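Quick one, tokens below. Sequence please?
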């Protein structure tokens, strides 16, 4: 049972990290880069954060 709890917490941590990275990407895009804020930009920023997490997780190094 503890393995299941650990797996759930690990997946939630990955989603949280993707959210934090997405917020950073969104703030950089709307701040210094001057892109207008929109829900589409927020979703794309979150997806780019998730893609980065997957890329780092599956890297061969």
């Amino acid at each position: 049972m503890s393995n299941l709890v650990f797996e759930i917490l690990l997946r939630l941590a990955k989603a949280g990290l993707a959210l934090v990275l997405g917020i950073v990407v969104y703030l950089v895009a709307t701040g210094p880069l001057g892109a207008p804020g929109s829900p589409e930009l927020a979703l794309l920023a979150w997806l780019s954060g998730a893609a980065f997490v997957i890329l780092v997780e599956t890297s061969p190094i």
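Residues 2-30 form the longest helix (29 residues). Helices lie at 2-30, 39-57.
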